[in-house]
Amino acid sequence: MSSTTSRPAFLAYLSQYWREWAITGAAMVLALLLGAILMVVADPEVSANFAYLFTAPQLALGGAWAKVAGAYSALVAGAVGSPEALAHTSAKAAPLICAGLGVGLGFRAGLFNIGAQGQAIMGSIVAAYIGFTFQLPYGLHLLVAIIGGVAAGALWGGVVGWLKAKTGAHEVIVTIMMNYIAAGLLAWLLTTAAFMRPGRMDPISPEVQPTSALPGIYQQFHLGFLVAILAAAAVWWLLERSTTGFAIRAVGLNPNAAATAGMSVAATTTITMTFAGALAGLAGVQAALGPSANGVPVPLTVGLVGTVGFDAITVALLGRSRPLGIVLAGLLFGGLSAGGLAMQSVAQTPLTLTMVLQALVVLFVAAPALVQTLVPILKERKSKKVAMAGGEA
Amino acid sequence: MTAQHDAGLQLREITKKFGTFVANDAVSLDVQPGEIHCLLGENGAGKSTLMNVLYGLLQPDGGQIILDGEELHVENPRQAMAAGIGMVHQHFMLVEVFTVAENLILGREGGPVLNLEKARAKVTELAGRYNLPVDPDARIEDLPVGIQQRVEILKALANDAKYLVFDEPTAVLTPQEIDELMIVMQKLRDDGKGIVFITHKLREVRAIADRITVLRRGKIVGSAEPGTSESELAELMVGRAVDLRIAKPEAKVGQIRLSVKGLTVANPAGAVVVDGLDFEVASGEILCIAGVQGNGQSELADALLGNAQVTSGTVTLDGVDVTHSNPRQTIAAGLGFVPEDRQHDGYVANFTVAENLVLNRFTTQPFSKGLALDLKAIADNATDLVERYDIRTESITKLASQLSGGNAQKLVLARELSRDLALLVASQPTRGVDVGAIEFLHKRIVAERDTGAAVVIVSTELEEVEALADRVLVMYRGKAVGIVSPETPRDVLGLMMAGVPYEEALANSKAAATGKDN
Predict the structure, then answer these.
(1) Which end of chain B is less congested by CB atoms within 10 angstroms, N or C?
(2) Which residues constitute the domain of residue A300?
(3) In a domain, A392, yes or no
């Protein structure tokens, strides 16, 4: 009856680990399948052929296959198909990893940091301002710009932590509001003399000095990506090896027990939000100082950071708030983003499909029970149904 | 035990597994109308699992339930209730802001229009029939715990339950309320109800059981007659002989270490919950704070830790004023603290055993070097404490959530006692802990006293108070009713726990004793 009683513990651990990966993999496959269906449905030419599904199936299915295969091969080629594609992916991934770390760190302390967007915007404002205003030598200029941007993000996040610690204001609401304030601040700054490009009336800043740009290594693969990996390693050390991280994790898992053991929940909250803001600020720095396709950084505009702060939430969720997971999730989403552009130009599939794919992947990962229902092999072995039936007979 | 009866509720060979853990291994139990069947067992023996199977909260992996000769399939509590099985839960399933009558019709509204008048009549009728007086319009949150339990019983009776399961019903009651409950249970039995009474308190079993079945590690290990002695029952339960009362050497009282003067504490809502408390505890003595749950003991303990809002008064530890210190400071000043609710406040369930064992010391030597944790020192500390305190775990890297209740409590005590303490404050140190582990934990606490620490134990269990205390402070509604010797008779302590001053309680209990004699 109990043949598996003495199953070694590490095997159980391994199988648990394997299952998590398998669920993530299955989520991706399911997302791609649904994406394929969407592609077929959304293309009137291809979907029209389904009217002849029974009379001329080769027309409908062949057309659908060609459509899907073409789009996905363009997606893969654009993400990892060539050195240029890989460089493009790394450039897209770098800010996602940084902001994802910021959101993930918050999760570990039990905080839902929705404010990565605002923190990234603040980081981009200060980094770009230092970049186009100051005249400093190579190296130093970049360093000052990075520190400035990171500090701005830290301040923007730290305020939220401080408010929560002092007044109990909920971080979700405060960060959402801080996002609006940051976005509004940027829009206003771009109308001021300090930020407007001489000779232009539209809200765009001057280009940053070459001395402050993140140096490219190969095409768009630039120093910022290495900085993001270093940041991930630092967050890992912070969480797993430092006393501060111990407190962050304890407060995140059981704030009552942490407080009873003498930890300050208020201080930990403030510290965590400061670090989280700094990491999201670093994402803004990447957006402001990282080279674009033409080799120079994009000047500051209202849309410069895009939706990196919101994408970061999905990255952190997919990466399960662990630094390595966030790096991998950031690379995946970076790849989808880079490949999506290729898919759009080569296979005439709208870029928005990649957003749907990202959303579907996260949706499936967030609902493991759903994936397990769709792919029953991933189910955890529970008490034997057979034994129950036998007992009742 | 396996005799075939037409009437009665039978559980036959119930098996329930959680993964590879067998919580119930072919357990058979039956109860006849008009009897009280005690199910006795340590925490984790599988009593609650068995009853949850019966009540439809868990599905068994094997076995069957027979009700009055017919097989019964229960998939949810609603079906169990419909079949005439009622459950009085340890944690009441009542909506606190609803009235008694509203709670009674909860889940049986029977249509879109509430018929409160009918519910009220039903309460009065049932209360009269079973002699369980309760005001149908009283709000649950305004009622004492004993009356709330009465409402739970009425709820079960309102379903025309023929079989009632009482799951550890006495844990939250005063000794007097326990006596009243016993009378109610006897009345229900005489009325023809079949009662399963789950408990791990030996005294209650002896007082009321018609039959006793003992469960250990998921298996029936025997049955006993009501006359069986407490130590024999304990041996059956634990599987070895146990000291119910540990040998405690005389206290060697030294100088005063903890001094509390006029301490007043408000709860977050602003209500005064500890009201002008004065007491002192010396080195080498154990002061037990006795009282029914919810009379300010928890807040007193929190105030000593520095986790409550002290509105006036002072707390002095070794001559230093710690009234407004925070937990970090009081812990640094030599306070060891065992919280009342260990899962909530005592450890982090998703931390490893090793991490939990340094939960309040990870920033100090030798567990940290600068900003970094010293993982080796943390692991060494865990290996040492796991062995010394006999914490049963597969490894120190297992999560604390995988420990049993008794082992989790050992983990908390091991962490607190492994430091040099000036003061140990332990609330309900053995709640939900096996009889065997209680013995061990009590010995450790007395050993800590004998190293010269001042010890404050908050306990609602009179057995524990009698076993540990050198002096007993009885609390009622935030005030000290009195400080008495642990030899004070049980009924006097019981009256004091209901707010009666010592002299009066003593006189009352003497009068009652003479009354019985006549």
Answers:
(1) C
(2) 89-349
(3) no
B327–chain A nearest CA distance, Å: 5
The CATH number covering residue A244 comes to: 1.10.3470
Contact: B17, A383; criterion CB under 8 Å: yes
Among chain B residues, the shortest Cα distance to A244 is held by B371
Sign of the C-alpha dihedral, residues B330, B331, B333, B334? positive
Per the domain annotation, does A200 fall within a domain? yes
Tokens of B352: 């490893």
Answer yes or no: is A113 within a domain. Answer: yes
- CA A72, CA A68: separation in Å to the nearest integer? 6
Find the closest chain B residue to A1 by CA distance. Answer: B20
Whether cis (ω within 30° of 0) applies to the bond prior to B366 is yes
Tens-digit pLDDT profile for chain B (518 aa)?
A: 444 456 889 999 999 887 777 888 999 999 999 999 999 887 667 888 898 899 888 899 999 999 988 898 888 888 888 899 998 887 788 888 899 988 888 877 667 777 888 888 888 988 888 888 888 898 988 887 788 888 988 888 888 889 999 988 887 677 778 888 899 899 999 989 999 998 877 888 888 999 999 988 888 988 888 888 888 888 888 777 776 677 788 888 999 999 999 999 998 888 899 999 999 999 999 999 998 877 899 899 999 999 998 999 999 999 999 999 999 999 999 999 999 888 889 999 999 999 999 999 999 989 999 999 999 999 999 999 999 998 888 889 999 988 877 789 999 999 999 999 999 999 989 876 777 788 889 999 999 999 999 999 999 888 889 889 999 999 998 999 999 999 998 889 988 988 889 999 888 888 877 765 54
Domains, chain B, with CATH or none: 9-238 (3.40.50.300), 256-334+420-517 (3.40.50.300)
Residues in chain B, overall count: 518
Residue in B with minimal Cα distance to A252? B348
Q: What is the spatial distance between Cα A169 and Cα A162, in angstroms, rounded to a whole number?
A: 9
Does A114 fall in a domain?
Answer: yes
Q: Which residues of A touch B (CB under 8 A)?
A: 2, 4-5, 7, 9, 241-244, 246-247, 249-250, 253-254, 256-264, 383-384, 387-388, 390-392
State whether B362 and A242 contact (CB < 8 Å): no
AA identity, residue A231: A
The reply to whether residue A257 touches residue B63, judged by beta carbons under 8 angstroms, is no
Number of domains in chain A: 1
* CA distance, residue B330 to nearest chain A CA (Å): 8
Q: Counting every residue, how long is chain A?
A: 393
ipTM: 0.84
Contact B271, B478 (CB under 8 A): no
